[in-house]
């Protein structure tokens, strides 16, 4: 049983209730990346009471991360991001069970890393690992919440193949990425919070809103739009489903 006092304000939300909170408490999530998107995702899932959180990242904290990766304090520069993030998260909610996975996500290890997760949060910044994660999600039938940021723009969608497209349907080839992505903490925070919201809805038994849709947020004009996205019948990853 969860601590009622701790969550009583969210238990007041229409349609939430004890059953929803219990579902969150028994959920297992896999967060790929403990950077700009991973920090707000992990923070929101931790404080909302998601019971089992696996955080995967191969990097150590660098001073250039600190403008947006707010789970990492200055004193943790040089520390593994997984360790640093979980130190902060444990202080926020000691009832959550955390697992750190300090490794790169590859095609060879992704199934083992994701294991029995109920949902995957793609908080990565490179296509190679994103494709490996996407293929795993399709193979295992695990929903994947994808997000990306660039400058003052953020994007979010929810993949639940076979009923929705997968990452490879909408990005058949990796888009060219410059080495260093321009990014601001408010953008990653807002975009990651959207990912966390969709994850909470799914885990709590409510339907995510961004299946078959891509939310595109232009924060320079505060213009948000939702575009329909569809499956690619020739997708090498999910078209056989
Ligand atoms: Zn596909």
Account of the 3D structure:
The protein is of the alpha/beta class. The protein has one domain (4-228): NAD(P)-binding Rossmann-like Domain (Rossmann fold), CATH 3.40.50. The chain is built from 8 helices and 8 strands. It has an 8-stranded mixed sheet, sandwiched between helices.
Descriptive tags:
single chain; 241 residues; alpha/beta; Rossmann fold; 8-stranded mixed sheet; 8 helices; 8 strands; globular; binds zinc ion
Q: Averaged pLDDT, please? A: 96
Count of individual domains: 1
Query: Which ligands are bound?
Result: zinc ion
Morphology call: globular
Radius of gyration: 17 Å
Biggest β-sheet: strands ordered side by side in the sheet: 3-2-1-4-5-6-7-8
Q: What is the CATH topology assignment? A: Rossmann fold
The helix tally amounts to: 8
SSE map:
Elements: H1 4-11, H2 17-25, E1 28-32, H3 38-48, E2 52-56, H4 81-92, E3 97-101, H5 110-114, E4 119-122, H6 127-140, E5 144-150, E6 153-159, H7 167-170, H8 185-203, E7 213-218, E8 223-228
Parallel strand pairs: 1-2, 1-4, 2-3, 4-5
Antiparallel strand pairs: 5-6, 6-7, 7-8
Helix pairs in contact: 3-8
The structure holds zinc ion.
Zinc ion (ZN) binds at residues 165-166, 168-169, 232, 235, 237-238.
């Amino acid at each position: 049983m969860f601590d009622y006092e701790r969550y009583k304000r969210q238990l007041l939300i229409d349609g939430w209730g004890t059953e929803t909170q219990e579902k969150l408490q028994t959920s297992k999530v896999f967060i790929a990346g403990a950077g700009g998107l991973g920090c707000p995702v992990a923070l929101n899932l931790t404080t909302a009471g998601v019971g089992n959180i696996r955080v995967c990242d191969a990097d150590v904290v660098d001073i250039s991360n600190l403008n947006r990766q707010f789970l990492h304090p200055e004193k943790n520069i040089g520390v593994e991001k997984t360790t640093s993030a979980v130190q902060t998260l444990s202080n926020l909610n000691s009832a959550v069970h955390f697992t750190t996975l300090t490794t790169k996500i590859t095609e060879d290890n992704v199934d083992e890393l994701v294991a029995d997760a109920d949902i995957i949060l793609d908080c990565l910044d490179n296509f190679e690992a994103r494709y490996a994660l996407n293929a795993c999600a399709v193979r295992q039938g695990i929903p994947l919440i994808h997000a990306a940021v660039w400058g003052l723009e953020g994007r979010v969608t929810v993949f639940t193949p076979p009923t929705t497209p997968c990452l490879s349907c909408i990005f058949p080839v990796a888009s060219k990425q410059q080495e260093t992505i321009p990014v601001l903490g408010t953008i990653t925070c807002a975009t990651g919070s959207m990912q966390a919201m969709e994850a909470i809805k799914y885990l709590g038994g409510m339907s995510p809103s961004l299946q078959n849709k891509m939310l595109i947020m232009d924060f320079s004009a505060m213009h948000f739009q939702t575009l329909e996205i569809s499956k690619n019948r020739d997708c090498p990853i999910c078209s056989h489903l």
